[in-house]
Amino acid sequence: MALGVAFSSYVWRTVGLGWRKLLPYSIVGISWSTIHNVMSYIVDFDTATNINNYAEVAFGGYVFIFLVVSRSLLFYFQKRSNVFLDLLYGFVHFALLLVPMMEIVYYLNYKASFSTAAAIAVLQSNPGEVKEYFLQNMSLLSGVSISVCILVLVILLFKLNQINHVLCLKEKQLKNGKGLTKKILVASVVLCLSVALYTPKIFMGTSVVHAFDGAKEYLRSAQKFTEYYRNNEQNLNVIKSERHFSKPSTIILIVGESAGRNFMSVYGYSANDTTPWLRTQVESDSKNFLLFNHAYSSYGSTMQALEQAFTEKNQYNNKEFNQSFTIIDLAKKAGYKTYWFSNQSVKNTADTPVQLVARTADVTHWVEDDPSTQNRILYDGDLLPALKMVNPNENNFIVIHVMGSHELTLHRFPPEFTKFSQPGVFDLVPNYEDSMAYSDWVLQQIYDYAKSNLNLQSMIFFSDHGANPYRKRVADNIPFINFRIPLIIYLSDEYQSLYPETTEALRAHKNQYFTNDLLYELVGGVLNITSNHLEQENNFASSEYKYTRDTLKTDLGRKGLNEDISEDKIEK
Question: From start to end of 240-368, where are the E strands?
Answer without folding.
Answer: 250-256, 289-291, 294-296, 337-342, 363-366
